[in-house]
Amino acid sequence: MLLDSAPRDSTRPAGAPARTSRLLDAAYRIGALARHNATLRLRDPGQMISYIVMPMVLMLVLKPLYVRAVDGGAAQVATGLMVMFSVFAISLVGNSILSERTWRTWDRLRVSRAPAPELLVGKTLPLFVVMVVQQTVLLVYGCLAIGLPVPPNPVYVLLAIMVWAFALLAIGALLATVVRSHGELSVISDVGALTLSSLGGALVPLSIMPEWAQLAAHVSPGYWALSMMQAAVRGDAAGAVPSALVLLAIGLVAGAFAARRLARGWGRGGPM
Amino acid sequence: MLVATDLVKRYGTIQALDGFSLNVAAGEIVGLVGHNGAGKSTFVEIVSYLIRPDGGHVTIDGRPPSATRGEVGVAPQHIALYPSATVREHLELYGRLAGLRRAALREAVEDMSTMLRLGGIMDRRAGKLSGGQQRRTQAASALVHRPALLLLDEPTAGADLETRQAMLDVVKQRAGEGAAVVYTTHYLPELTELQATIAVARGGRVIARGTCEELLKDLPGEVRVTLADREEVSVSTSEPTVTLIDLLRRIDRPISAVDVRNPSLDDLYRSLAVHDAP
């Protein structure tokens, strides 16, 4: 229902099956959104850079302490700080989504042909890449400069990174749809990140924490991320799978909640 | 093209729409006027499928709004742009989301750039633009895919003359090409220039609809006679000519000026204010 003179897509082959055509259209829209959001993200790289550089510096400074304190100290300091600072990156996701409400642009996207899942995927895809890059850079740095053992199977590590990035993305999206302001998001993501990742053993090894803390660690996504990451670095696929499943479940629940809120225009007067 | 019947929308204790009905034909511009809170923006949001009505029906080209997503051009009342994205990036994003690709996309972006006089600012970021430039960018991104139904919610609010004229020109052009247009505004002379059908909203419903002449015919004009000693005699009347003749016959003092003012859209608006007053 566009005006007759509208310039239309002339690149699609005539007679293409409708379903394939719909999928291609959806992929094109997601691509357009991802490209747009990647451009915006690259124009404001400060926070991304700090979440990569800060853990690098801390790893270097804290390495001697960890090496003396626990067996496998190098692995602990590299994976622990990687997990902790990847949790901080939740605020990147949250701010990115929350800004759409601040700028009032989310409603304009909702008026477009892209349904809510496409909007969410297009919005978060660049952030997913950012998180994967952040974690990969930190682990490579860990191997090169901190003494983290080179993983026997890098594919396990990559899969673990992707699972963790997905869970973080979903948690960040959830936070963005429940907070009322950037300030509130900042408080929740910073305090939450520090608390949950510390409780999960990212800062201090669980083995030297009190028994109650070791039990409480199980409620922290950071605990499961650290277990999965350390198992993946060891090349222990069987050890990584349970934690990966927990994180996937957290990600799916949080993501479904966020998608539902976003589809309803979250925070608007009326439901959709 | 657009048929809205008996729409009802309530926000808590506030009745935003209370039996709002409005039809807009292809090629028609309907100027939706009314005071703040009359239900104009709520109506636009329902037709855009941003909110769902509590009652009533809307069809666009015979289909419900859920089936016409992306086929409607919506320029909301508030500026809704990405501060760090350029004007070109905005047009490309919304063009792509509507399915435009490659040469078609480039052509559509250039068209909008020309029509809304964005040529010199296409590569400037939205956050650095003036208010009028932002208005034009917002309208351009709503029109870039050439939708057959345009919902423009106060598109010239706070805009400069250049922006206003560019906006009116492009709306007239699109309507001339067959687009149905709903144009809400508080600047009533714009509707005269657009030769729009006028729908008056009050209390969540459309209380009057017609051409400018039809709506003004029952409103009083004003006859003002200024006497030589600067005293003024002013009469509100629905028959200014007859009243003037009567006044001139009765006044036996020297007259310095006579002013006959026919009712305008502003009078219509003011009469609404009187009706709305508690």
Automatic annotation (TrEMBL), chain A:
Protein name as annotated: Transport permease protein
UniProt topology in membrane: Multi-pass membrane protein
Keywords of the record: Antibiotic resistance, Cell membrane, Membrane, Transmembrane, Transmembrane helix, Transport
GO MF assignments: ABC-type transporter activity
Domain ABC transmembrane type-2: start-end pairs: 42-265
BP GO annotations: response to antibiotic
Keyword Transport: yes
GO cellular component terms, semicolon-separated: ATP-binding cassette (ABC) transporter complex
Predominant subcellular localization, coarse grouping: membrane
Organism: Nonomuraea rhodomycinica
Subcellular location: Cell membrane; Membrane
Membrane-spanning residues: 48-67, 73-98, 119-148, 154-179, 191-209, 237-259
Protein family (similarity comment): Belongs to the ABC-2 integral membrane protein family.
TrEMBL record, chain B:
UniProt membrane topology term: Peripheral membrane protein
Keywords: Antibiotic resistance, ATP-binding, Nucleotide-binding, Transport
Annotated organism of origin: Nonomuraea rhodomycinica
One example GO MF annotation: ATP hydrolysis activity
Protein name per its UniProtKB record: ABC transporter ATP-binding protein
Signal peptide limits: none
Location of the ABC transporter domain: 2-228
UniProt similarity note: Belongs to the ABC transporter superfamily.
InterPro entries: AAA+_ATPase, ABC_transporter-like_ATP-bd, ABC_transporter_ATP-binding, P-loop_NTPase
Gene Ontology cellular component terms for the protein in this record: plasma membrane
Pfam families referenced in this protein's UniProt entry, alphabetically: ABC_tran
